[in-house]
Structure formats: structure tokens, C-alpha cells
Design goal:
Layout (H helix, E strand, L loop, with lengths): L16 E8 L4 H14 L3 E8 L7 E9 L20 E4 L2 H9 L9 E5 L6 H5 L8 H11 L2 E5 L1 H7 L4 H12 L6 H9 L5 H17 L23 H13 L5 H14 L2 H20 L8 H14 L4 H8 L2 H11 L10 E4 L3 H7 L2 H9 L1 H11 L3 E4 L3 H11 L9 H20 L4 H9 L8 H15 L2 H4 L5 H12 L6 H14 L1
Parallel strand pairs: 1-4, 4-5, 5-6
Antiparallel strand pairs: 1-3, 2-3, 7-8
């Protein structure tokens, strides 16, 4: 794409400049607004900024609105407090979907607005809690902004800022300065940023990098979703017991399923131990042998491939022990520091919200003891009254860390727990159904394995997913003799992923029942 032509898009000085900044908590939207005001004032303009908090995304998206105008005849102008749809010169969005929302609000117009947006994603709560793929389509946003805006400057400003040790606000200011939409020279922007006490050098570095990036390549098309990759299988894992797993993998599993099985092995060693990973290979070997026997080679061993994926998912279920383990890992603390841009000399505290139920506590107990507590109504209800309440645990303080560390250390007792017994019983019934279907309807057996994606999470999320999974599996016997049975099961699976309550699934099941009759 051609570089931006200097001064080609400067706005008129005869009417107020109007700039809207859409940013979420922690992205420095207020700092960016203050910088723009200070730049305008340094050039002799009268400027003001206001903000309107919102409740979108993670900690709330806020609209910062800036207006600036040269004084006339010594009289200061009266400036607006809110952006007016169709009357905004520049919209700066600190996240891709916020750019889309600015278009929906009417802030971006093709005859006037320059849109400056970061193409990275910070997923909203509704995207995260969707049973299936709830991620908004970035391509749709890109197509909308191309039509709605006069000019678009879009690239991953978050990544650029992090690479330069600063916040995204500095990168967005650099993009704004490079666009030369506002009649202010680069030197004024740099002078204002350099006047700050904390992080001025890093902010200037990020500003300069974004300025150069905007001039050379102002437009970047985001990708849909996350790129998937397969980790290569190494010749050695550096430990005799791990190498034994790799030898079994290469000799016992079809080549087409080996990359996925390798990922499964890593997950299960992390989840429990090496012996547990051998149990995974035992199951996968038996399923692969059945696959070969019933035409798997002609089908590209798709049954073995799906088994490699979903058996690992089923065996590495989310329980309280795993959740606690994830929350106390040093890698997680390192990632959190990196994401918020914390310096080496800064202390970062995090608070985890936990809400265990009596079911989770019984699941952690030895199988017999857990069943005993569950079947004693008064005892179970008393336990629920004690544990079933929200807790905020400060993980970076010793007391909070030790609470989760003790729970995570129960990994050694997991295989004898009530939760594990139930998970494995459910897994074996699911695999038995897939094995029984394999000689009768190969593709249906593959879809039975794929339906395991309905089960995820723990607590209420796990219970809802398990309920949907069981309802879908109840329909399988009626599909065995149908040539289109795999298609029908795929429809049921997709319907189950459409909503949390399972309304779409109920409708799909009724449709199948009518067609069968």
C-alpha cells in the first residue's frame, strides 16, 4: 500500500476538530486524550476532553471525546461535550471490535472520518462464554470499516507497543501523528510525550515505531480466529521415560494421527504424569487397531485422528485441582506481567474469584467417601452451606497462594477421586458407543468422537455441557442405519453449541424425531 502523503488529509482550521477515542480499562485512553489536548494547546488551540464510561469488553470501554479550535478575535470558543454521529473527524479505537462499534454508533462516516484502529483482539465476555465459537468475525469488521470510513489506518498497535516496552496509547498517538490528519507537527507530539516523568523514553520509542509503521504500511488485514499449528515430534524428549512414550507413539499410532497424539501426550503428562500418558496411548492403540480393521486407511485414519484429540481432552478434564494448578504457575504470573506491561521493579497483585460448590468438594474426595457425603442429604447440604460462596483469593500474597497451592498439590490423589471415577466411566461409555458404530457407519463413529467437544469446563459449565452431550448421544441409536446419520449428528452438535440453554438443540432433536417417523 502507498505511504501516506504528507499533509494531504489535514482538516480545516475553521471549525472544531473532533476526535473520539474508544479504549478499555488499562489501555491508557485517558492518557492519550490528555496528550492530544496538550498538543493542541501547545500549538495555540483551545482544547478540551470529556469521557463517557461504558460496560463493554473486559473492564469497560470508555469514549474519550476531544474538541479543539483556534480562538478568534481573542474569544475562546464553546466546545461540545459529546461526539455527534456523522460529525467526527478522527476515531481512534484501541481494539478491533471497538472500531466496529464506532461504525455502529455512526461515529465513522465515509465523507469525513479517519479511523485509526488496532487490529488485535481483547475478547468480550460474551465471546468467551459462548458454548461454541463465539468469537466475532474480524473480516466483517474490516469490510465494514473500509466502506464506512474515509481513510483507515489499522495494524496491531498493541504488539508494537509491547515490543517497545510501552502502552498502546503511545502507539495510537504515533499513528495519529503520522496520518497528519491534525495540523500539528511531529515535534510537538514528541515534546509533549517527552515531558512525562514515568516511561517517557519507552513511550517515545513506541510513538516513533508506530509513526514509521503508519507511513510505510498503514493498513493490515486481521486474520479470522487463531492460526492452528502442529508441534513437530522431536527425535528425543531428553528423558528415558518420555522417550519411551515417543517410541510407542511412532510404532503404535497411525502416522496421520501422530502429531495430534503428540499434543495429547504433552497435555496428559502435564495434567497428571507419565503413567497416565501411557494409559492414553493404550486406549488410542486399541482404537487405532479397530480403525485399521474397518477401513481407516481409506478414510485417512480420521477416526484415529479424532480419537487422539478428544480422548486426550476427556482424560485431561477441568477439575478444581487443575484450575488451582493453573492459577499458581510461574508462567501465568510472567504472562500477566507481560500483558499489563509491568516493569521489573513493579509489584503486580492479582485476585482470583472462586466459587466452589459441594459437588466440587465431593469430587475431590476419595470415591467412596465422596459418594458417602453426596448420599447423606443433611451432611451434603451442610457442606454446601460452608463452601458454596464466592471467595476472592489474593494469589500474590502468601496466604492466598498457599490456599491454591495446597489444592493443586492434591494431584497425586486425583486418580482415586470421585470426579475421576465418574469421568472415566463416562469416557468408556462414550468410546464404547463409537466402537460399536465403527463397523456399521464409519463417518457416524467419527462424529460421535467429535461430539466430545460439547463437554468442557467445570462446575455449572461442565454440568450444562454434559447434559447436552448425553441428549445428543441418546439420538445416536436411531442414526446408525441411516446413510446421512453422520450429517444429522453434526447438525445436533452444532445446534448444541449455539446457545447455553440448549433451546436450539431441543428443536433439532424434534426435527430428527419427525423425520425418522
Amino acid at each position: 500500500m502507498d505511504a501516506l502523503s504528507p499533509m494531504a488529509d489535514q482538516l480545516s482550521r475553521e471549525k472544531p476538530l473532533s476526535i473520539a477515542v474508544l479504549a478499555m480499562g488499562g489501555q491508557g485512553g485517558g492518557v492519550l486524550a490528555d496528550w492530544i489536548v496538550e498538543v493542541a494547546e501547545a500549538e495555540g488551540w483551545v482544547a478540551q476532553s470529556t469521557s463517557v464510561p461504558g460496560v463493554a469488553q473486559r473492564t469497560g470501554a470508555t469514549i474519550y471525546y476531544i474538541e479543539a479550535l483556534l480562538p478568534r478575535d481573542g474569544v475562546s470558543p464553546v466546545l461540545s461535550l459529546m461526539p455527534t454521529p456523522g460529525d467526527v473527524d478522527v476515531v481512534i479505537a484501541a481494539e478491533l471490535m471497538e472500531a466496529g462499534r464506532s461504525v455502529l454508533r455512526g461515529l465513522v462516516t465515509p465523507d469525513r472520518t479517519t479511523l485509526i484502529a488496532s487490529t488485535h483482539r481483547a475478547f468480550a465476555v460474551l465471546e468467551k462464554v459462548a458454548p461454541g465459537d463465539g468469537i466475532g468475525d474480524p473480516i466483517a469488521v474490516t469490510e465494514a470499516t473500509d466502506v464506512a470510513a474515509r481513510k483507515v489506518i489499522a495494524f496491531d498497535m498493541e504488539a508494537l507497543a509491547l515490543a517497545n516496552g510501552s502502552m498502546i496509547s503511545a502507539a495510537m498517538l504515533g499513528a495519529l501523528a503520522a496520518s497528519e490528519t491534525l495540523p500539528f507537527p511531529r515535534q510537538t507530539y514528541e515534546k509533549i510525550i517527552g515531558g512525562g516523568k514515568k516511561g517517557a523514553a519507552a513511550s517515545l520509542k513506541a510513538f516513533s515505531a508506530a509513526f514509521d509503521r503508519t507511513r510505510t504500511a498503514p493498513r493490515e488485514t486481521p486474520r479470522r480466529g487463531v492460526e492452528k499449528r502442529s508441534d513437530p515430534i522431536p527425535p528425543s524428549a531428553g528423558h528415558p521415560k518420555l522417550d519411551a512414550l515417543l517410541r510407542r507413539l511412532r510404532s503404535e499410532i497411525p502416522e496421520a494421527a501422530q502429531p495430534m497424539a503428540f499434543v495429547g501426550l504433552k497435555r496428559l503428562v502435564e495434567f497428571q504424569n507419565i503413567a497416565y500418558a501411557h494409559t492414553y496411548l493404550d486406549r488410542l492403540k486399541r482404537l487405532s487397531e479397530l480403525d485399521r480393521k474397518h477401513g481407516g486407511e481409506a478414510a485417512g485414519f480420521s477416526f484415529s485422528l479424532e480419537a487422539a484429540k478428544y480422548v486426550a481432552v476427556a482424560m485431561a478434564y477441568d477439575d478444581v485441582i487443575r484450575v488451582a494448578d493453573i492459577k499458581v504457575r510461574s508462567a501465568r504470573f510472567t504472562r500477566m506481567r507481560r500483558e499489563i506491561g509491568a516493569k521489573d521493579d513493579q509489584i503486580v497483585y492479582s485476585i482470583e474469584y472462586l466459587h466452589p460448590r459441594a459437588e466440587e468438594i465431593c469430587g475431590m474426595l476419595p470415591a467412596r467417601l465422596g459418594q458417602f457425603v453426596e448420599t447423606r442429604g443433611p451432611l451434603f447440604r451442610a457442606l454446601d452451606r460452608i463452601v458454596n460462596r464466592g471467595r476472592r483469593v489474593e494469589v500474590r500474597r502468601l496466604r492466598g497462594f498457599l490456599q491454591l497451592f495446597v489444592v493443586a498439590s492434591l494431584r497425586g490423589t486425583r486418580l482415586g477421586s470421585l470426579r475421576h471415577k465418574r469421568e472415566i466411566d463416562h469416557l468408556e461409555k462414550w468410546l464404547a458407543m463409537a466402537r460399536d458404530a465403527l463397523p456399521k457407519n464409519y463417518q457416524l463413529a467419527v462424529e460421535i468422537l467429535r461430539c466430545r467437544r460439547l463437554v468442557k469446563g467445570y462446575s455449572d459449565t461442565h454440568a450444562r455441557g454434559l447434559s447436552k452431550f448425553d441428549r445428543v448421544m441418546n439420538v445416536v441409536p436411531a442414526l446408525l442405519a441411516r446413510d446421512d446419520g453422520a450429517d444429522w449428528l453434526d447438525r445436533l452438535k452444532r445446534a448444541a453449541l449455539m446457545d447455553e440453554a440448549g433451546v436450539e438443540l431441543d428443536g433439532a432433536i424434534k426435527t430428527i424425531q419427525v423425520s425418522l417417523n
